[in-house]
Amino acid sequence: MRDLRTLPKAHLHLHLEAAMRPSTMAELAAAAGVPVPSTSGYEDFTGFSQRYQGLIAVFGRRENILRVLDEAVEDAAAEGAVHVEFGGAPLYHASVFGSAEAALVAMLEQAAQSSARHGVSVGLMPTLNRMADPEAMVETALLAAKYAGQGVVGLGLANDERGFPPEPFAASFAIAKEAGLLSTPHAGELDGPSSVRGALGALQADRILHGVRAVEDADLLAELAERGTCLDVCPTSNLLLGVVGSLAEHPLPRLLEAGVRCSINADDPTLFGPGLLEEYELCRSTLGLSDQQLATCAWSSVECSAAPEEVKQRSRSAIEAWLASPPVPGGEALDQADQADQAAAQVVRA
Ligand SMILES: [Zn+2]
Fold this sequence. Notes:
Structural class: alpha/beta
CATH architecture: Alpha-Beta Barrel
Order of helices and strands: EHHHEHHEHEHEHEHEHHEHHHHH
Helix content: 40-55%
Distance between the termini: 25 Å
Bound molecules: zinc ion
Number of domains: 1
Largest sheet: 8 strands, parallel
Number of strands: 8
Strand order of the largest sheet: 1-2-3-4-5-6-7-8
Shape: globular
Number of helices: 16
Radius of gyration: 19 Å
C-alpha cells in the first residue's frame, strides 16, 4: 500500500470552528472558565448544530480564532494537504472583531501568514446560513465578493437542508460568480436530488459540498459527470448524521463508477473524529477504493479547487509520481486489485 500521507490533496470541505484540535478546545474552555463543549451525543442534524454552536462559545477572543486557523493549516500540512479551503461565517465572530468585515479581514491576514508558514495555500469560503433570511444574506455575499482575489475563493451555503432549498439564495450566488468566486453550496446531504439540481441550476455550483444523495437519481449522476462538477464528500460525517446507515454503504464508490468527480474531506473533525488523512484511509479500508481511485479523488480535489495554478501543476506531477511508485511490501493484493480495475477507473484528467 502506498502512503496516503504523501499523496498531495486539497481539503475542500472543512468548517473552520470544527477544525479545532480537541486539546486546543480544552485549553480555550479552561481559559474562558466554561465547560469543555460536548462533541458527541447528538442524534440528528439539529443536535449536531447545537454542538457546533457550543464550539463557537469557547473562542471569545480574536487571538483564539486566529490560533485555531493557524493550527488547522499546520494539521493540514501534516496530513499531506497542499491546499485548504475553509468554510466559515464571519458573522459568527462579528462581535469579537467589531464587525463581520473586520472578522473576515483578520482571518484573511492570518490565512496568508499561515499559508506561508506551513507551505499550504489557503482560501476562505464565507458561508451563508440557509435557515436565515435570504435577503439578509446578500450582505455576506457582497462582503465575500469584495475580497475576491484577496484570499476569499468561494461562497458557501450551509445548515439544515430540509425545508431550506438553494433557490432563494440565487441573488447572492450571482454576486459571487460575477466577482469570480467559486459557488460551493452544501446540497444533497439531508435533502435529495432536488437540492443538488437547485445548487446546479439556481446557484451555478462549481462544486457541491456533500452531494452524495445525487446517487438516488441516475439522470442527475449523468449530468454531474457531464458537467465535471466535483462533490466534496465526507464519509464519516454522513455516517454520524444518518445520511448513510453504515460506512460500507457509503455511495462514494458508486459516484466514482458513474464518472462523477469527488474529493474526500473531513467536514467537522472536532465533532466527527477523523481528519483528512484518516478519511482517505477509511475510504481505502472500508470502501475498498484502490490507489488509482484515491489518486483520482486527490487530483479532483486539487484541480477543482481555487489553488494557484503553480500548486495544481506541481501536485499533478506529484500525484502521478505517487501512483507510479511501487506499493510498499504487504500491499501486493491491493496492487493487483488496482491493475484489475484500472480499465474501469477514471484516470487523472488532463
Ligand atoms: Zn459541511
